[in-house]
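Re: duplicated header lines in exported structure tokens

Our pipeline writes sequence and tokens for each protein into one text file. With two proteins the header for the second block appears twice in some exports. Here is an export where it did not happen, for reference. First protein block:
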Amino acid sequence: MNKHKYVIIFLFLIILLCISGTIAFKTTNETANNIITFGNIKVKLIQTTIDNNGEEIEINNDNEFNITTDSSVDRFIKACNVGKQDIYLRISLNTKGFDKNNQEFDANNLVDYVTNNQGWIYKNEYYYYHKALKPNECTETLLKKINFNIDKISSNYPDSSYKFKADLQAVQSKNNAEDVLQAEGWPDKE
């Protein structure tokens, strides 16, 4: 009788382990027109430039640059909290080059990002906004201009093209650290 009791308890534990192993959670991730959603966090990356008429216009994240006539490109970047939670956010800036054979190379050493130091903290390849951003608030402009090193480009990468990309990440500030640099939950860098 004791042997049957142990077998029943053993089977019960196996069934319990199987059931608990199937419990899972669901996360969602949507991307649309530079709006990124992680659960209840929604942020929008706003990128603008100056057109030929001197007007500020919104652009997308993958515009190519024509730097044959000018060694700098106006690029203004800021972020807005379009969700319902206070958030911390950070932005990384990256420029890739493509040689005349369309082979990709890291071009970050060929550019100088002219940034706004007011309200932004640079650390470990990211620009962190200095405070939690409330719903419907926007940051100060982070990026003002991208300067290209034309001498290096001309001598090392003739007939090359360049793409700039800004990556925006956000985490909730509620129940997180008191400081953006101590905040947890950031996605891993791609």
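Second protein block, exported in the same file:
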Amino acid sequence: MENKMSETAKKVYMVLNRFHQSQRALRGDGGLPNVEFFILSGIAMMLDAKSGKKCCVQVLPKADVSEEVGITLGEIIKVTGMSMSAASKKISILEKKGLVQRNHSKTDRRNVYITLTKKGREICESDRAEKHAIIEEIIRRMGEEDMDRLLTLANSVFDIVNEIADEQRKIRGGEGFEK
């Protein structure tokens, strides 16, 4: 039985690796370096979440809604896990490329809100449309019933991975995986 489990474990590892490779293949870049595109698309998703728009790529916690429009650098750091310095540098690069803009708060000039420019939004929307078309084609080729089964099983695997990570975090007293 141990050999069977060992072979199954190898298959699981290989399938997870293929999922990772497929994700990289689907990842858009809008002609930008990966980190810049990651931040740009993250800003788009956070702005969508803030406005109550459902985001098709990732479920994000609803950001605090204020009278200001945009995302703070702190919110970007929280979602990306980047340092303040690294995130600020990348935002400056995106700003120079005309993809984002910084807006100072009307009530407190110390607060800066980052928004997408028209060009930045167009890059994100084009990427989303391309991904949506690919996903729809995958579902068409696979069939909705098989896709539903796969999604149910994949979500079970990810839930178990998170449970194990939480258990390990408690044992080590450190961080687990994000849910």
